[in-house]
Design a protein that fits this description.
Largest sheet: 6 strands, parallel
Number of helices: 14
Helix content: 40-55%
Order of helices and strands: EHEHEHEHHEHEEHEHEHHHHHH
Shape: globular
């Protein structure tokens, strides 16, 4: 019998499904809940167990992981009579891997403490590919002892795992991550349009740019999206729009100026307003093409 902690996993979306499956592969007993039946079937096919509700999933679990889209969804699964805090056992460790506001994480940790439940905020970076390959970057906020306890589980999901400070710190670092990624994608998109309008071999240009100082994980991961105009969502514009709202609000609170970030946040918002919210965030290329006179 496994001595690994029993895990409840709430949220089996683009990221949550492969992440939970990686825990199953690592030997964890994983019980999952989500709203989509096909995602529950996928988990059971991988060796996990499906639960009909949040309450059913978390009862008896040693560790509870939430991976849902935003703060309202985290609050919906955490609070209330059918939520995590009312149904998890005292002493359980709740790890929220969603990308939400730092304030939501701090509030959740305080509410959970009253129930004897420990909390870590542990958002991730790396997108769907990083989730599948278990090479995510995991930025964690919370107590050191809880982080140490969760480290083996994190190691089944990612490669760069860092405690960044107290509750909310992980979410603050994730907000900075999303700022950097959005600005980087925007710069890559502008370069792609510039190169194509100049008549340059785009594939060759991106190869050489990727090998120099302009190279980045973003360019490496999104190069094929740009070349093939394939915007199948690995991380949706809708979610990046939410994240840009988080970082601009948090920056305003602490008095940090984000002049370039504010412009990119507006470009993300405009792309979403034009109906592209369900596309991958590399679809920022479409916004640049529109501004450059193309019909897309």
């Amino acid at each position: 019998m496994s001595t690994l902690p029993k895990v409840a996993w709430i949220g089996l979306g683009i990221m949550g499904s492969p992440m939970s499956e990686n825990l199953v592969k690592a030997g964890y007993d994983v019980t999952g809940h989500t709203l989509e039946r096909e995602k529950l079937d996928r988990l059971t096919a991988a060796g996990g167990t499906a639960a009909a509700s949040v309450a059913d999933a978390v009862r008896g679990a040693d560790v509870i992981v939430t991976m849902v889209p935003a703060s309202p969804q985290v609050e919906a699964v955490a609070y209330g009579p059918d939520g995590i805090l009312e149904n998890a056992r005292r002493g359980a460790l709740l790890i929220d891997m969603s990308s939400i506001t730092p304030q939501t994480s701090v509030g959740l940790a305080a509410a959970a403490k009253e129930k004897g439940i420990r909390v870590l905020d542990a958002p991730v970076s790396g997108g769907e590919a990083g989730a599948i390959e278990a090479v995510l970057s995991i930025m964690v906020g919370g107590d050191q002892a809880d982080f140490d306890e969760a480290k083996p589980l994190f190691e089944a999901l990612g490669k760069t795992i860092v405690r960044c400070g107290p509750h909310g710190s992980g979410q603050t670092v994730k907000a900075a991550n999303q700022l950097i990624v959005a600005v980087n994608i925007q710069a890559c998109a502008e370069a792609v349009v510039f190169l194509e309008k100049s008549g340059v071999d785009l594939a060759a240009a991106l190869d050489v740019l990727g090998g120099g100082l302009a190279g980045s994980t973003v360019l490496a991961r999104k190069k094929d999206n740009f070349l093939k105009r394939d915007f199948t969502p690995g991380f949706r514009i809708d979610l990046h729009h939410k994240d840009m709202g988080i970082v601009t609000d948090a920056a305003r609170t602490v008095g940090a100026a984000l002049p370039v970030g504010a412009v990119v946040a507006q470009l993300v918002a405009s792309l979403r307003a034009q109906g592209d919210g369900g596309l991958d965030h590399s679809a920022l290329l479409r916004a640049v093409e529109r501004l450059s006179g193309a019909r897309v």
